[in-house]
Design brief:
Layout: E1 5-10, H1 11-24, E2 38-42, H2 44-48, H3 52-58, E3 64-67, H4 70-78, E4 85-87, H5 96-102, E5 106-109, H6 112-120, E6 127-132, H7 144-159, E7 163-169, H8 179-193, E8 200-201, H9 205-208, E9 224-225, E10 251-263, E11 268-269, E12 275-276, E13 281-286, E14 303-306, E15 309-314, E16 322-325, E17 337-341, H10 348-354, H11 359-365, E18 372-375
Parallel strand pairs: 1-18, 2-3, 2-9, 3-4, 4-5, 5-6, 6-7, 7-8
Antiparallel strand pairs: 1-10, 10-13, 10-17, 11-12, 13-16, 14-15, 14-17, 15-16
Helix pairs in contact: 1-3, 6-7, 10-11
């Protein structure tokens, strides 16, 4: 039989989370006559580990999809997605431009080299684009001193039939924990982009879930939000749980207990003797390890639910197995289900916090060897 581990992805939960983001756009109610922003559902990194095919089916109500990988964008078109697709890092080589043209992909333009490539290998049909302003992330985007010239160059490319619709965008660096800094970054964007019209896109997950933030932009500019991690049932905030925002976990990582034993005081568990028991204990071995994508640096105390009872990880995570405390789960036996994160277990954010990382990493890191089950 197959190894007893699986990652279950719930399409209804993905759709529900998209709807939660849409509902947030009415809190507080926007001024009369101001249209609600449109939504790019961000499905980069194989839809945060959930699968491109599943994301296309689940996010059918989104106004567009946003991602990084050109092959994944082509796959969305092959699956029948007709609405806009945004490449968040744009293109990387001149030969990519023909693919963007063929599949009607919208590109981000964040550096002079991309504008040079468009001039050297112009498409036969205009490409829609977003010019990106660096407001302090210092990762991608034109600086404030270079932005106006880059925008003018994009306008010239539109005159030549190289570009079509030209939008503007930025990315907040601390929308999850610093409202004042985010406000200053938004002010910088409005100062540079607010008078130029066209589409704008500024809000990532945290900003999309911050009431009223998007409403500070000029009402005449069509807005596109870019929610990401929240669509998958994890929180972009350290101090707000996904559950408190009405989000549902879309992925459940589960495995089964494959061994049960009683150990005596002083006995050690796992490699390096990272855990030594102080009293008689009952422990179980679960068929999940770091080769499955579970974090090796998760330590004793990381929450796990076994047989419906919340308990804890013990010792060091191995490549293919981990140990759990079955003392509070007397009914547990070989074959009992352990929820590592997701529906019926700890949230992925809880596990990530215990491991000193973020839920994004855990969801993206689930290994290909873990079978995926889809709930339609």
């Amino acid at each position: 039989m197959p190894r007893p581990i699986s990652a279950t992805v719930s399409l209804p939960s993905l759709s529900h989370n998209l709807n939660i983001v849409a509902q947030q756009l009415d809190q507080p109610a926007p001024p009369a006559g101001r249209p609600r922003p449109r939504i790019w559902a961000v499905i980069k990194a194989h839809a945060y580990g959930h699968g491109i095919d599943r994301a296309v089916r689940a996010f059918g109500e989104a106004d567009g999809l946003a991602m990084l990988d050109l092959d994944e964008a082509v796959r969305c078109r092959e699956l029948g997605w007709k609405k806009p697709i945004l490449l968040l890092e744009g293109f990387f080589e001149e030969r990519d431009i023909a693919v963007l043209e063929r599949y009607a992909l919208t590109t981000v333009l964040h550096c002079q080299e991309q504008l040079d490539m468009l001039a050297a290998a112009p498409p036969a049909r205009p490409l829609d684009a977003f010019i990106k302003l660096n407001v302090g992330m210092n990762r991608l985007g034109f600086s404030e001193k270079d932005y106006a010239a880059a925008y003018q160059r994009a306008l010239a490319a539109r005159e030549r039939g190289i570009l079509g619709d030209i939008g503007q965008m930025c990315h907040f660096s601390r929308a999850d924990d610093d409202a004042q800094l985010t406000g200053r970054q938004l002010d910088a964007f409005i100062r540079m982009a607010g008078s130029r019209g066209g589409r704008v896109s500024v809000c990532n997950s945290a900003a999309s879930l911050t009431p009223g933030l998007w409403a500070r932009l000029p009402a005449a500019q069509e807005q596109w939000l870019r929610p990401g991690i929240c669509l998958y049932g994890a929180s972009p905030f350290a101090d707000r749980t996904a559950e408190s925002m009405g989000l549902r976990p879309a992925m459940t990582l589960a495995a089964r207990v494959i061994s049960v034993r009683d150990i005596s005081p002083g006995a050690m568990v796992g490699y390096g003797g990272a855990f030594a028991c102080q009293a008689p204990m009952r422990i179980g071995t679960v068929a999940c390890g770091y080769a499955d994508g579970y974090p090796r640096h998760a330590g004793t105390g990381t929450p796990v639910t076994v047989g419906g009872v919340r308990t804890r990880l013990l010792g060091r995570v191995s490549m293919d197995m981990l140990a759990v405390d079955l003392t509070p789960v007397p009914h547990a036996a070989v074959g009992t289900e352990a929820i590592l994160w997701g529906e019926g277990g700890p949230s992925v954010d809880e596990v990530a916090a215990a491991a000193g990382t973020i839920g994004y990493e855990l969801l993206c890191a689930v290994a290909p060897r873990v079978p995926k089950i889809t709930i339609e």
